[in-house]
């Protein structure tokens, strides 16, 4: 099992550009999440999904969009990138049928210049 | 709004010593997690605590939960250098089927010889 796979691992964007961060999980988890981690801080929830076709905003959704067309995939779209979006982005999944925590992807380090 | 506070935020300790990291949260919850993050890496699930009085142990780490005090502790016994990392606690809000966790800001532990 690959677990949660994120791509790309690193990216530099110019202000105003757009990009999609990819996230795929192969554990058949219904629940998926996008978090951002700023230096020296905890994780802030951007968007989450409880199943295919269902998404909802987290704590810091402005400037981002998501979709969930399949159980496996949960891409995060950044429109009109701003320096404030410089961060490390983590995708995670969870099954509430078990008592495990999140399974995280390896992260995407994004710099907006 | 659920708030999660960890202390201390930074901890430098000698090998062989014991110490405790504290995690306080602001509202009732039935799930609390501890994660470990190595520098530049993703987060790894350590413990899930599901009920008042729950205690989990692995190696030199022991986590406990007091839901009445809204407090979890992560106790480190006879620290070794390999335990150097950032430790996060995370809490799920009550009465939710989305499993979306709120994270503390993390405790960065440095174990010195």
Kindly describe this structure.
The complex is a heterodimer of chains A (about 110) and B (about 110). Chain A has strands spanning about 5, 10-15, 20-25, 30-35, 45-50, 55, 65, 75-80, 85-95, 105, 110. Chain A contains no helices and eleven strands. Chain B is mostly beta strands. In chain B, strands 2, 4, 5, 9, 10 and 11 form a six-stranded mixed sheet that branches. The model of chain B has no long low-confidence stretch (mean pLDDT about 95). At the A-B interface, strand 4, strand 5 and strand 10 of A face strand 5 and strand 10 of B.
Question: Alpha-carbon distance between the termini of chain A?
Answer: 36 Å
- Largest sheet composition of chain B: 6 strands, mixed
Q: Which spans of chain B have pLDDT < 50 for at least 5 consecutive residues?
A: none
Order of helices and strands of chain A: EEEEEEEEEEE
Q: Which descriptor suits the 3D outline of chain B?
A: globular
Low-pLDDT stretches of chain A are none
> Helix/strand-derived class of chain B?
mainly beta
Rg result of chain B: 14 Å
Could you tell me the number of beta strands of chain A?
Answer: 11
Q: Strand fraction band of chain B?
A: over 45%
How does the helix and strand content of chain A classify structurally? mainly beta
Principal-axes geometry of chain A comes out as globular
Helix content of chain B: under 10%
- Provide the succession of SSEs of chain B: EEEEEEEEEEE
Radius of gyration of chain A: 13 Å
Q: State the distance separating the first and last CA atoms of chain B.
A: 41 Å
Supply the number of helical segments of chain A.
0
């Amino acid at each position: 099992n690959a677990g949660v796979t994120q791509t790309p691992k690193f990216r530099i964007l110019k202000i105003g550009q757009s990009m999609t961060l990819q996230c795929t999980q192969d554990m058949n988890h219904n629940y998926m999440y996008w978090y951002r981690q700023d230096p020296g801080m905890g994780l802030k929830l951007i968007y989450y999904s409880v199943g295919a076709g269902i998404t909802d905003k987290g704590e810091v959704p402005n400037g981002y969009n998501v979709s969930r067309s399949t159980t496996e995939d949960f891409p995060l779209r950044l429109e009109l990138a701003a320096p404030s979006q410089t961060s490390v982005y983590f995708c995670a999944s969870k099954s509430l049928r078990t008592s495990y925590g999140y399974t995280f992807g390896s992260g995407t380090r994004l710099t907006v210049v | 709004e659920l708030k999660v506070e960890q202390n201390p935020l930074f901890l430098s300790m000698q090998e062989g010593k014991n110490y405790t990291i504290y995690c306080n949260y602001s509202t009732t919850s039935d799930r609390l997690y501890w994660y470990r993050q190595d520098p530049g890496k993703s987060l790894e699930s350590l413990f899930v605590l599901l009920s008042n009085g729950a205690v989990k142990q692995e190696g030199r780490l022991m986590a406990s939960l007091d839901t009445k005090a809204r407090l979890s502790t992560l106790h480190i016994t006879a620290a070794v250098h390999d335990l150097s990392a950032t430790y996060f606690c995370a809490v799920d809000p009550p009465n939710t089927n989305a499993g979306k966790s709120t994270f503390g800001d993390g405790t960065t532990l440095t174990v010195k010889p």
